[in-house]
Task: structure prediction
Amino acid sequence: MASQDSATLRNDLFSRRWFLLFLVFLIATSIYLGCVLSPPSLMDDVDAVQAQIAKTMLTSGDWVTARLDGVVYLEKAPLIYWLMAFLYKIFGVADWVARLPVALASIALALLSAAFGMWAFGERAGFYAGLCMSTCVGLFLFTRIQIPDVMLTFTIALAMWAFLRALDEEEKQPRLWAAILAASLGTGLLLKSLVGIVFPVAAALIFLFLTKQLFSRRTWRRLRPLSGSLIVLLIAAPWHVLATLRNPPYFAWTLQSGPGLYHGFLWFYFVNEQLLRFLNLRYPRDYNTVPRLYFWLFHLLWLFPWSVYLPAITKLSFKPVDRAGQTRLLALCWAGFILIFFTFSTTQEYYTMPCYPALALLLGSAMAAEGEWIHRGTRVLGAITSVAALAAIAVAFAVRDLLTPGDISSALSHHPSAYTLSLGHMLDLTFDSFAYLRLPLCVAGAAFVLGAVGNLRWSGMRAFLASSLMMVLFFHAARLALVVFDPFLSSRPLAEALRSAPPGKLIVDHHYYYFSSVIFYTGQDPLLLNGKFNNLEYGAAAPGAPAVFLTDSEFKDLWTSENKYYLVVSEKGAGRIETLVGKEHFQTAATSGGKLLLANVPTQSSSSAPPTVPRRTGAALFLSSSIGK
Result:
């Protein structure tokens, strides 16, 4: 009878655990798969660049060396490109397909955080950790572009869990978990190079030192570093060797980096991209840094709404006397190392995404323990969401009668000095611009009302679920807002105008990144006017680099010839082009979002006005396209 009761209890716990994991899956899927839809289109800059590299790999058959416009692009690891290209082959080349790897990785990360927390702390704490991971602002914001950081975060979190399980006395398969640990490290190398190993290994070594296991024979016998190293090499070494052989010279013993210098793949990938970037000496310096105070304080925003519970973490026990204490201590080593590492390196906000699961585990553990700080945090969140709801409703009401001519770019201001911040473009919003955002404002207002009611009336799991549903609704409001910003953040409307125009060769003014979505959506390989800088500068110096870069004089000769050319350019840059070739030599074929499509041969009667690409409707919070460089 006792054995039957015990079996029934195990079945109940098993069923409850799967039900809670399913809820996390449902919430994460509704956010991340729900937001792969198009529009919004792929944004100019890194977003469309990543998708285009994968497209080139698929069409060229070269899965080793990434290229942009035929120029070797050696700075990034290839796994995200392989995943995109593989999905292109299954579903076809499309923007929503390009988004699938990041979306699926986000869902997997939420489930992994929940499963890790359930193993360490129990069902409720793991469930809360999964909620924190799937609905925090940072994970959503930094997965709006196709960068591999969420995949890296998954491999690091899996490595940390595998590390603890390999060491756990109750674990029946330590050899399997040691192999999973090694496979995670090898995969991390193919996602973002050395940090895929440095972060988890450093956190693990600090943990072993603090728990007095670093010099224990038992530790290394269970972790199996020799066989683990072989697994890492089997996963990561082939691509590194092939990329080195195909992009000589093989070795360059120098720290000198500058214009026109080409030292091959191995030097650029490890010395320039790893060492010199850490020292902030990388050339070309095509990245921004965030002031260190903002870098730390913004984590309150990236972890919102769950950051209100951060003070409760101080009440937890970090003594490694049991599985829960060991996990908390490891999470502290894990998050602490990453935050301190980037404090002394280049500070970009999304770089610290790999510490989010560690903080989610600590938050989930504190939320399950409840206590006074959790109760206070719930009430604080209720007050914050109440104010946010009133503000959203008030603004939506105030702009109800404002006209919305053209697209939203005409109603924005510009603050270039703020664009080093991932939300720097938020300062571009004017009161008039909110008239374009009526629908997202209403949806966001409804989300905040839900959060306010849930957090002021309830506590515990009910309040946490209300906050999660609030964020699901809010993120979809954000997606609607990105649709409104589509002409500003993406150049897809110009691409559509170009596809319907008479055939001609495309030229991009200044930098490939600035109009990368035109290239993705048209499928054209453009010429680049004065575009030999930043990400393409190193590859442009490689032997056999394609002749795709134009000087002003070369451009003028082509533009004034009998052949047909199109040029995509910003409104600010159009004046320079007019001065260079003369107004009589070009005509505006389309405009959208402060950008122009120019033609050197008229595409319509000169008596008609150039068409403005119709803006798309939709709407919520404006999320910047400046992240990801």
